[in-house]
Structure formats: C-alpha cells, structure tokens
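Retry 2 of 3 after timeout on previous attempt. Resubmitting structure tokens to design endpoint.
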C-alpha cells in the first residue's frame, strides 16, 4: 500500500508540473487558466469562448517542426511542450522552447487585434524594485497586471543581490513583430516584460548566433545562476514563463502564460 501511495503521489506531481500532459489535459488547462475567456462545454475538441464563439483545439494538422508550429500553431500545438517550473533547471533539448508556440488567433482575441485595442486594457503597475515611483504598463486582461503586481511585491522583498536582477525593467508593451520572424511579439499584447539582467546572464540566442541560423550552445552561466533561478521561480509561481528556460534562450523575457506555469485550475 505504501508503494502504491508513493506511485499515486508521483503521478499527481507529474500532472501538476505538466510533464505528462495529455491532449485533453492541455485543453483543460487552457480553459482553467483563462476563466474570463472560456467556459466549459460538453463538446469535444472545442474551446468555447464566453461570447459564444468556438475555436477548434486540435485542427488535426500534424506539424512536425517547431518552426511550423510557431508559424501556424493550433491551440493543441501551443500546449504541446510542458514548461519546467522550478530550479535547478536542466539544459533544454533541441527546440525545447515551451511557450514559444502561440496560437496567434487566441492572443489577438483575448488581448486585442490592434495596438489601439491592446492599449485600451493597459494599466500602470507599480514596480518598487526599480524605485518607489516606478510604474510599468501591463494589460489587465486575464488578471495579468494583478499577477505582475504580486510578482513585484515578492521580488522587492528579496535581498539586494536578488532584487537587482529586476531593478531595470526595459520594456513591456510594443506592437511589433518578433526579430527575424513575421509573427507578433508577445510584447504586442501587453503581457510580457523584459529586464536588464546582470551581464553574464543577459543573453539572447540571436546575439550569440551573430547573424547565423544555428542555435549557439546553451550558456552555462544561465544553468549555474541560482539567483536567476530564484527570480524565475517567483515569476513562475504567479503564472509567468521565462525565456531563460528556452533552448532559443531569451533570459530577459518574462511572459504571462498561466496555462503553462503557476497554480493549475
Ligand atoms: Zn521580451
């Protein structure tokens, strides 16, 4: 019985971290993570929006590469890679970029289909780690601004050697495409924030690739920086993913994705 109990606990833990997410689990996580957007439905394979419209979860197209999924991913593709919360982190495998696949239609419908539409939902969030009066603009859609505010309070209470990691926010909302791609950056939707990190871990794979297409070796500085790990863990607890955990690393980037990180509903 004791062994069975341990096995059952492990299964629960695996599910909690999303390491063994089935397709149905991905659909359930999306609905649970965005309660302002979706409602339960008896129909299979459907995301039902509160405005009565529906989006097919699995469009049946088998996309074999990360590039294909990033260009035309379905909601199922978006949920295809579990995000590894916590620290220490292991080196991500080839194309292991959990969260970089985004079903563009979902984000445009939730956050806004134009700069003006997104801007209507932006609010000022205090960021005390950067100074008593510092504020950053973030979307209030899906509770993102409230989640960022909770992160800000928590990291501001950390010792100085940790707080300095987030003392220089360098950008939230910009309506733009991703460098080297023609799809919108998550910054377009007002639910992502970048920080100027300490130099050894302020890393973006395209900078290290120096114009080439090959992804450089994963920087050991990221794997070794337990302080960065503490910061990432705070963000993750509140539903943010961190680009420092992507094989195509982008350490300064933190993005509100409650379907992949944070308490699961
Ligand atoms: Zn970013």
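Retry 2 succeeded. Sequence:
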């Amino acid at each position: 019985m004791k062994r069975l109990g341990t096995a059952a606990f492990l299964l629960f833990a695996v599910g909690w971290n999303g390491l063994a997410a089935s397709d149905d689990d991905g659909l359930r996580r999306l609905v649970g993570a965005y309660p302002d957007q979706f409602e339960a439905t008896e129909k299979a394979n459907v995301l039902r929006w509160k405005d009565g419209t529906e989006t097919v979860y699995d469009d049946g197209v088998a996309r074999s590469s990360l590039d294909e999924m990033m260009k035309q991913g379905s909601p199922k593709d978006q949920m295809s890679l579990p995000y590894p919360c916590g620290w220490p982190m292991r080196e991500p495998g080839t194309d292991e970029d959990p969260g970089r696949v985004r079903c563009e239609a979902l984000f445009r419908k939730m956050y806004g289909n134009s700069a003006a539409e997104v801007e209507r939902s932006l609010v000022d969030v205090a960021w005390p780690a950067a100074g008593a009066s510092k504020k950053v603009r973030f979307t209030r859609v899906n509770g993102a601004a409230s989640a960022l505010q909770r992160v800000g309070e928590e990291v501001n209470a950390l010792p100085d050697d940790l707080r300095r990691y987030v003392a220089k926010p360098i950008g939230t909302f910009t309506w733009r495409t991703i460098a080297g791609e023609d799809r919108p950056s998550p910054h377009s939707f007002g639910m992502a924030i970048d920080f100027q990190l300490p130099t050894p871990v302020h890393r973006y794979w395209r900078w290290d690739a120096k114009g080439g297409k090959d992804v450089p070796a994963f920087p050991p500085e990221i794997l070794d920086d337990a302080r960065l790990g503490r910061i990432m863990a705070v963000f993750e607890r509140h539903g943010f993913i961190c680009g420092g955990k992507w094989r195509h690393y982008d350490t300064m980037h933190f993005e509100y994705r409650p379907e992949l990180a944070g308490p699961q509903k």
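Attempt log closed. The first helix runs from residue 2 to 17.
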